[in-house]
Automatic annotation (TrEMBL):
Organism encoding this protein: Pseudohongiella nitratireducens
Protein name as catalogued: Rrf2 family transcriptional regulator, group III
PANTHER family given in the database record: HTH-TYPE TRANSCRIPTIONAL REGULATOR YWGB-RELATED, WINGED HELIX-TURN-HELIX TRANSCRIPTIONAL REGULATOR, RRF2 FAMILY
GO terms for cellular component: cytosol
Top-level taxonomic group: Bacteria
GO molecular function: DNA-binding transcription factor activity
Length: 136
């Protein structure tokens, strides 16, 4: 099963953006993340739409924060990315008439719902300036 590391990668970039004194290009961020600049632009556009970053076109253009790190939470970023679930585990739906599958799905579903709610609550308490022991 493949892990979705988009949240952690975007958090990494946002904290780095705070350290730069000038806008950072998609190419530079793509190099930092070992990905394609188009992927960076699409992802950053989601954050721009929510007001966390801004972009400037042109020779000295690029991406920069539009809010300080202490005003952005992990939950903000998670929601901006449109992530539907924090878990990559899923319930099976191949044998919907099987009573055992129904029981397993009910038990797992309840636990995952409860765990996700707790995790998202905690995400809302952590601002980006708290990451990596940064003192800002």
């Amino acid at each position: 099963m493949r892990k979705d590391s988009r949240l952690s990668r975007v958090l990494h970039v946002l904290v780095h953006l705070d350290a730069f004194k000038a806008p950072v290009t998609s190419d530079t961020m793509a190099e930092m993340l070992s990905t394609n600049p188009v992927v960076v632009r699409r992802t950053m556009a989601l954050l721009r739409d929510k007001g966390y970053v801004e972009s400037v076109k042109g020779h000295s253009g690029g991406w920069s924060l539009s809010k300080p790190l202490n005003e952005i939470t992990l939950l903000d970023v998670h929601n901006a990315l449109g992530s539907s679930s924090v878990f990559t585990i899923g319930l099976t739906d191949e044998y919907t008439s099987c009573p055992i599958e129904k029981a397993v799905n009910a038990a797992l579903g309840d636990v995952m719902t409860e765990a996700e709610a707790l995790m998202l609550e905690r995400f809302g308490e952590i601002t980006l300036d708290m990451l990596g022991g940064l003192d800002r």
